Amino acid sequence: MAEIIKTSYSALDTFRQCPLKYKFQVVEKIKAPKSKEAVFGDKLHKALQFFHKQSPLSPTLDELLNYIKEIWESEVFGDEQTDMIYFSEAIKILKNYYENYLKIKEKLVVLDTETRFEVLLENPDNKDQKCLLRGIIDRVDKIKDGVEVIDYKTAKRFPAQNDVNNSLQLSLYCIGVLNRWPEFAKYGPENIKLTLYYLKHQETISSKRTEEQLNNVQKQTWEMLKEIEKSEFQPIPSALCDWCGYRRLCPMWRHLYKEQMAIDDEQVKKVVDEFFALKQANSQNNKKINDLKEIIENYLDKEKIERVFGDTGYITRLIQIKAGGYDIKKLEQLIKTLPLPIQEQFQQVKKNDKEYTIIKASVKKIKKEP
After folding, report:
1. What pLDDT, on the 0 to 100 scale, is given for residue 343?
2. Coiled-coil regions in this chain (predicted)?
């Protein structure tokens, strides 16, 4: 019997962003509070689904705005001012969306919203292994020349066209639509328009797929699954950490959230601050800095974390790979033995890569998120 691995594009994307978050969320299934941005996006998606699901008459603008008022969760956004900023932004987006839709609604028919799909992908290296990949498409429209698949985005950053053209997400959506509605195959993939709709800008960016690109999805997906299988789930710090619900568990952030510090915890906090003071006041004092680094590294090992925080900033330990060089004496000897294959000889004298850690200091105040 074939082994079936079940996953989703969102899970694969989570692994790409941060393997450790994938482990917490997908492997260990640890629940985390949703960020303000995630809740904001979820409420807009639900409001737009409500708007397009009503038939035969779409809701009025007032009905649409009343709906989001009903489902809004003010407590998620903390203080009243923050809540008002997010809610006002949601109202603005829905008003603009409504006005834009009125201009184009005669040119399309909304076939479905929040469309669930499944794609079964066989492992090209093992026919007994298959991946069942599931996803949800925000909106599918019938347009004049075929079909349009729309994915709503609430982010500010607008992607480059090349990124959209090579997006695995949109390729999977294209296959998902063909699986969900086989009759669309008559249009061919070149007539399935794949669109990212940026709600804050009320702008879209679209792409199409070739048969070759769709055939490559199988390979891309299984390459990622193989990466996950052999992964050690190391964290990847980035700007996305600001919206992550697992910071209290992450070795890059856990130290920031320690409520009750033991003596050695207080000590290392002072060591971090002393580290910054020495680094700024006397760049020549390398020995003392190295001593402090050793204290900090020992603390990181003991606590099994990769980042510590002080009042001045935070210190991160990163794993680096030092590329192996060549032993010149051996290389000279081997060159004299030509005409043996040169590439093989170089490979024999190449030193092994070495893995090592570095301590990186960042002068930046970090606020605790709930």
Report:
1. 54
2. none
Per-residue HEC secondary structure of the chain comes to: CCEEEEEEHHHHHHHHHCHHHHHHHHHCCCCCCCCHHHHHHHHHHHHHHHHHHCCCCCCCHHHHHHHHHHHCCHHHHCCHHHHHHHHHHHHHHHHHHHHHHHHHHHHEEEEEEEEEEEEEEEECCEEEEEEEEEEEEEEEEEECCEEEEEEEECCCCCCCHHHHHCCHHHHHHHHHHHHHCHHHHHHCHHHEEEEEEECCCCEEEEECCCHHHHHHHHHHHHHHHHHHHHCCCCCCCCHHHHHCCCCCCCCCCHHHHCCCCCHHHHHHHHHHHHHHHHHHHCCCCHHHHHHHHHHHHHHHHHHCCCEEECCCCEEEEEEEEECCCECHHHHHHHHCCCCCCHHHHHHHHECCCEEEEEEEEECCCCCCCC
pLDDT digits (tens, 9 = 90+) for 309-344: 988 888 988 876 666 666 666 666 767 676 555 555
230, 259, 285 - which closes a domain? 230
Distance CA 93, CA 333 (A): 71
Distance CA 330, CA 364 (A): 48
Q: Based on the fold, state whether residues 317 and 276 are members of the same structural domain.
A: yes
pTM: 0.73
Task: Look at residue 235 and tell me if it is in a domain.
Answer: no
Distances 187 to 107, 143, 151, 195 between C-alpha atoms, Å: 18, 11, 20, 17
d(CA 192, CA 178): 9
Give the tokens for residue 324.
């192996």
